[in-house]
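pasting for the record
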Amino acid sequence: MTDLPIRKVLQKSNVAGRMVRWAVELSEFDVQYEPKGPIKGQVCADFVVEFSSADAHQEEANFRWVLSVDGSSNQQGSGTGVILEEPNGLLIEQALWFAFKANNNQAQYGALIVGMLLAKEMGAQSLLAKSDSLLVTGQVMGEYQAKDPQMAAYLGYVQVLKGSFSLFELVHIPKEQNDELTC
């Protein structure tokens, strides 16, 4: 059943080309036109409500990306490790070596920033980030102040990046649970 003007096409005998071939093919199956009856507006509204409201919130919770970050520095330099897990379980791993000197906290912030940029680029809307740096997680979550100007600059950039996500959470995890990222 359809409201489309196919009835006219199927009843015309002088239609050229492909439509004639379709009319011949369909004529052996005794296809007849039946107009679709009226649909009340409330039925459409009920359909939209049923499939959008409850499932949208559940769907958003199910589509949370998980970011695990770690950064470190030593005499030879500093670097970061990032693992981004999409909701379907695909892992994206990234390791960076910095060409500039940074302390451990700066490397931890660098890892978080790199991970957040990667998640943003991948189109994540809901992000759970995990870090073993108590200082970084405390500053980002507002529990600690960033007194050092460089730390304040890193924190400010993370706060800007947080706005890219509809839901962002950063949690502190023990170093033992972050072994796969040890730089």
